[in-house]
Queue: 2 jobs
Job 1
Amino acid sequence: MLLNRFVLAIKNQSKETLRAWSYQCESIFAQRSRRIQQLLSFYQSVYGTQGLKQLWRAYYRRELQPPLRGMVLSAVGLMGLNIKRLGSDGYDWNKERLALSNFDLCRRDIEFINTLPHNQLCERCQAKKMKYCYCQLGNQRCRRTQTKAVPSTSKDADESIRNCHQPLDLDLRGAPAGTVRIQAQDEHTWEPYFSKNEFSIWRREERSSLYSYKVYARFDDITADDFLHVQTDLDYRRQWDDTALRLELISEDPVPASNSHLIYWEMQWPRLFANRDYVYCRRYVKDENKKLIFICNRAARHDSYPSLHGKVRVTDYWSLMVIKPFRSFHEPGLHFVLTYYDDPGIPIPQNIKSWVTQKQMPEFLTKMYVATKNYACSRAIKMKDMFNGFTLVNDEYTANAQRGSWLGSLSRRKVTSSSETDR
């Protein structure tokens, strides 16, 4: 009889303990879930969807231990069984992905940035009143064989000639190599074009009366991370670029670490001219070790976006950009060199081309700079608002005042039962 009472008391006490324990776990789970939701909302509002993906990839590479990483890879692999080789939109990324070797074309741009303190103007750049000279470095010929090369004026230039065909040896972290390459006219020489405000621009003839342009600028008060975000965030570009009438993401490379996207872009041209539209592939690389960012664009095709009546489809277009921060990606200060070429598709008088280049290009780059400043300001305001919106969590993780601490309730029961026994 006494044993039965003892067992019954344990059961009753166990039920109360289990109920209090379940309440406690529920409150902890609710608080942690709410905190995770706040953090996800915070990072998405600050860095955007693309930034949140990059943050997760960096956390996955650095923090996840091998057993957990294996489980994540297994889950991704099971999900990947349902993914076809071709994307759901029919774009074959295995054949159309931009090659990483395209970024090797930026080697001289990097050397140009590194040698800016010793930059000297050539005669043509002096005549054009340029701030810097790219001709002496950019017009050197690469050593394709062991024969004697073109004489150089400095040791640095001689090194650039000898090593200009070697890859940059970037820290790619398993990124796919890609196959599509940019066909630039390396045999022609760069010439100074004009210098305006903080921009220095040179040009090189790619075809008859068609030029590629190289732009250099430095900004002291914006970060490389913010500048990259402005370059790659399509939603934000629709807000600050009034010439982008349509800007749509067609497809995204499903391979991790590729950072490749297929984009449709309709650009507004001045009156009396038809608008230009593009279907192009974009790829970017961020090297944490060398502190460099590369962005590559090249014209592409997609069956769902054919040429439209009333618009001129640009099918010959490419661009390369290298961004080098002064110190780190998140600190203010950067250099960038942009090289781009496009064939407008129809003959345009040279004076109109010159007007578009000399007026529209600096205006667009200035708008891009202002957009980066505005983005950094809005991001700081969002960070302040989000941190102010965080609520402190009670250390006991109580769901509400009625439940209280289950340890406290148990201790109060013991005190009450002992006092009744004493009576």
Job 2
Amino acid sequence: MSEKDPHSMKDTAEVYLNELISRNLIQVVRTSTFNGRVMECRVHDFVRELAIVKAKEQNLFGLTNYTTDPLPPSTSNSSLFSSKCRRHSIYSDIERYASFEHSASSLRSLLFFNLGNEICRISQLDFIGKCFKVLRVLDLEGVEMVESLPSIVGKLIHLRHLYMEGQENDIPLRIDTLENLQVLSGITFNQWIQNNTSKLTRLQKLKLEGRYEAEGAKFPNSIAKLHDLRSLYLKASDESINCIPSLSMNSCHHLSKLDIKGHMQKLPETFQFPPNLSRLTLEASRLHCDPIPILEKLPNLLTLRFEAKSYLGEEMCVSVSGFPQLKVLQLLGLSGLVKLNIEEGGMPRLMQLQFRDVTKIFGLNELLNLVEVKILCTKARTFGIIDLFKIPFWVSRRTWRSWREYGVIMMYRQKGIDRKRRAYVAPLPPMILRVICISTRRLILDDGVE
């Protein structure tokens, strides 16, 4: 595959993954509601062991777990990993791995997993920069740092992916020298603003966490300069001193996915959002004004999620021609929301609607492309029979028994069914919220048990 096409390897890997799924060698656990792509999967133990053996034979990667596979003290690293192996996965005891004499100067990926509460000292990480100078992927997720990261990490100029989820302290971190970096995940806001991030011109995915303490326009300006950015995730903790400011991201033409979790001063204006934004998630934003008048004007928005405490108001209103491309709308955890009004012509392409604790929805009869409605009931409430505008729905006896066991009921729209044969149509159990829908082919009612 040509190196000029950065997506070819990822696309080819996805083709292989789907082929293994079709052969029942891999089981899908979770898919994306946005594009249906596989997000999580699992395999049988025997399949995993076979994959590991084949990977070692082909020098694809080397894997070791010192907890389940204890080794004698005299064991050397060369006996565990081939010198031609370009990927190492370590599942425990980073200190022991660091003590080995590493000869794999061509190593490209180094991953640490399941380290628990293991504390990592500065001396334990020195070997990364000394032995693996052409490293491209470094995953330190789960490694708790108590001292500053070695400055040698900033000299890994070939590094493209750096993962550091789980860091609780704002330890000093030098990243502005990593000009080839494409993915940066898990660093804190303070670590970010301490660097000259304008040099990270190739960054495509950025995830920032921790306390937000920045003042002024330094942080918003640093984001606006990332012209190649495609995915941005911001999560400000409850201990943050300041609110997440209103970001101006209209210069990020490639940015399509935006997740903001944390208290916001105010929602950016429509023109400040990325022009090609397709997925937006808000959580704990504590917005008091209806955000719909701003968001419904985004021309390419396909998925919109409101998580817990993102909006504190009681009403939302979608105007005529609002959300021209929206396909998925999720209103989750908005306990104060009592009314959603959809004017005629609003959300003409909506296919999936999901919400909790919403008691009144008006305008669903105009959503002609609506395919699925999912209601997550978190409180027991007493309502009348679901009004389906006399559209014939039916529930089989088997499905009804399944609901009693799992709290889920699925109702399928059927045309020309004799009403005498339709058993258990209504009334539905008392905890179900009142739903008004038309032209809906599938209606899922979920009691919220997870």
